[in-house]
Every structure is written in structure tokens, then in C-alpha cells.
């Protein structure tokens, strides 16, 4: 059975991106790393704008990992500043374009004003359905899975569920991405080939694409090329083509 056969033409509905290479982009130009992040934020704008026309319905961007706090303080401050600016300046336009914005990740370490901006953006855009944009912030897949397991354990302890009833669906329903389909395609820029604790559970059957382009150079054309290559790939979900 070819599970993907009824999906012709194959469309990447959920694309997730590990936006890597900002630092190297800046270094190549003899600039401080923060310049790469600034240019990277422009690439975010371009890709978000282009996504719906490419048939993308869900877009998840890895903006800040739970490990990124270990970077030099000025770099963390710059990344949070870019996020602040994005949330302050772009949300009205995102809303006008039918984008629903959500953050995934552990919010407990985020500054109060960023939390307020996220809450405002999520409430304002909740009814939109052109594109679901998930920004992964202080996100780590292992933490997300641990939290989901802990939630299940509490429910077992409270007698709400029987341990034998726990299956993949029950765990999936306790992830932050519970109501979002798994990514069809995960793209990582800059030539690195790893998932770096990004959507580990959700990536079980995702197509992985590693492109050499550094994130600040990534364009709508690159996204279109990735979606085109996805269309040509054969997804079998463990089955055999008949
Ligand atoms: C990885 O490049 C990139 C990041 C850790 C941050 C990504 C952030 C942005 C693109 C801008 C802000 C986001 C939004 C949503 C406005 P790296 O610094 O690890 O690059 P390197 O591997 O070359 O050092």
C-alpha cells in the first residue's frame, strides 16, 4: 500500500524550519554575529509572506532553543529584541493577512513584556486560518516530551486514565503541538545535518531537507524549491509501494 498515493499532488502542508547559519553569515562579512540575526529576521518576514502561495498551511520556525540561553548575553538580548520588534511591528499585518500566530516552548523564562506581546498576538489572531505560524521559543523537544509524560503520570495518579490506555495518540494530545498536524517537511539551512532537539516526536515521518544556504540568504525561491523537491519525494510511512 502506498499511503501517500491518495495525496497527489503531494503538498507540504506543514513545513518546519531550523533557521541556522546566522552567525556564519555575519562572520563571512566580518560583522558581529548579531547582524546575521537581524538579516535572519528579514528572511523570516519573506518566508512567512511566501508560504500561503506555496500551499503551506502550517509553518513552524525554530527561533530560540532551550539551549540558546548559553550564548553570550548580548546575543541573547539581541535575539529577544528582534522577537520583541517582530511581535510589536508585524502582528497587525500578519493578522490582516490571515495568519494565526502561536508560540511553542517553555514560556516561564521569557520576559514579561514578551509574554504579553505573545498573549496579545495569540488572542488577536486566534480566528485566522490562512496560515498557522508557530514560533518555537525556548523550545526543546525532550522537555516537551517530559512535560507530556508528566501530565499523563498525573492523570494516572488521579485515576483519570488507566496506564494500559496510554498510546501514541494520548501522548500526542499532551504535546504543545496537539492540534497541529506533524510536519511533512523539515528544512535545516546552513549545511548542518541534525535535528537539534526540534520536534523529535512529530518528526517521526517527516521528510528532512538539509540545504547549504545560510538562513539570512534563504528566500521565497528557496522555500519554493524545497516544496517542489518534497513533491518529488516518495513518502511511504513504512509501507511498500505496490
Ligand atoms: C541559528 O543561527 C539561528 C538562531 C539561533 C536564531 C534564529 C533567529 C532569527 C532568524 C531571527 C529572529 C526570529 C524571529 C521570529 C523574528 P546561528 O547563530 O546558530 O548560526 P551559526 O551556526 O552560523 O553560528
Your description of this structure?
The protein has 242 residues and is α/β, with parallel strands linked by helices. It has one domain: Decaprenyl diphosphate synthase-like (Undecaprenyl pyrophosphate synthetase), CATH 3.40.1180. The protein has seven helices and six strands; from the N terminus they run βααβαβαβααββα. The termini are close together. The N terminus is likely disordered. The structure holds farnesyl diphosphate (FPP). Farnesyl diphosphate binds next to helix 1, helix 2, strand 2 and helix 3.
How do the helices and strands line up, and which of them pair or pack?
Blueprint: E1 14-18, H1 22-28, H2 33-50, E2 58-65, H3 73-96, E3 99-104, H4 112-125, E4 131-139, H5 141-157, H6 168-172, E5 185-188, E6 207-210, H7 220-232
Bound molecules: farnesyl diphosphate (FPP).
